[in-house]
Write a structure and sequence with these properties.
Blueprint lengths: L1 E2 L6 E6 L2 E6 L20 E3 L8 E3 L10 E4 L3 E4 L14 E7 L8 E6 L5 E5 L6 E8 L11 E6 L4 E5 L14 E6 L3 E8 L5 E8 L2 E6 L4
Parallel strand pairs: 1-6, 11-17
Antiparallel strand pairs: 2-3, 2-10, 4-5, 6-7, 8-9, 9-10, 11-14, 12-13, 12-15, 15-16
């Protein structure tokens, strides 16, 4: 799993009617460890840092999910250790799906482990960052608009890219809506959409922190 500033918020696990809030802090560990491979991978020994240390890995080793933070688009840092004990639950991990389950603008996760009930991890947000969530509907293109590419340019000139996709993770389907995390930016200069049928569509001067339904224009 990869996150872009998610780790500045937090997650809570929903289990029946009981919720627990888990505070999260970012820790940039200089030497994040490599976790065990998924079941089915042959036993092997690795020494990735060339310092003489060897990590034993087994196909029968339970493991926890892993979260990486995108640092300024240049590198990724393992922040799993700061995500709370519910996130670090060990098991034989399978699929993961992402979506804004409670429509608060922050992406949530559903993760599964072999022979266990799915775990719902709610992103509690509350960090003051802005966002945008787009629902694209095709008319000349397929109605679900899968494959449509979206470019967002903020008022400051920062460009962000995303696309409509459902299949994310092993045997998992994620929220079809296109999500953008905007950080401190509250205004969007333009939204450019390239539809699967070949058409292009542009919206200008869009406010952040809203859900937009966008229909494909048909000439």
């Amino acid at each position: 799993m990869v996150c872009d500033r998610w780790a500045h918020t937090g997650y809570r696990r929903r289990r029946g009617v009981r919720d627990r809030r888990i505070p999260v802090r970012v820790s940039r560990a200089p030497h994040p460890r490599i976790t065990a491979p998924p079941p089915g991978i042959r036993r092997r020994r690795t020494a990735v840092e060339l310092r003489g240390d060897v990590d034993p890995v087994s196909e029968k080793s339970p493991q926890h999910d892993t979260m990486f933070e995108n640092v300024d688009g240049k590198s990724f840092v393992d922040v799993s250790g700061e995500m709370g004990k519910d996130f670090l639950h060990k098991g034989y991990q399978r699929g993961s799906a992402f979506g804004d389950l409670n429509n608060d603008g922050f992406l949530d996760m559903v993760v599964t482990s072999l022979n266990e009930a799915p775990r719902i991890l709610l992103n509690t947000g509350g960090n003051g960052n802005h966002w945008l969530l787009l629902s694209l509907v095709g008319h000349k293109s397929a109605r679900d608009a899968v494959g449509a590419r979206v470019k967002v340019t903020t008022a400051s000139g920062r460009t962000l890219y995303n696309h409509v996709a459902i299949s994310v993770g092993f045997m998992s389907s994620s929220d079809k809506r296109v999500h953008f995390g905007l950080g401190a930016e509250s205004k969007i200069g333009s939204i450019e959409i390239r539809w699967p049928a070949g058409g292009r569509q542009t919206l200008r001067n869009v406010a952040a922190d809203q859900f937009l339904w966008i229909d494909e224009l048909v000439n």
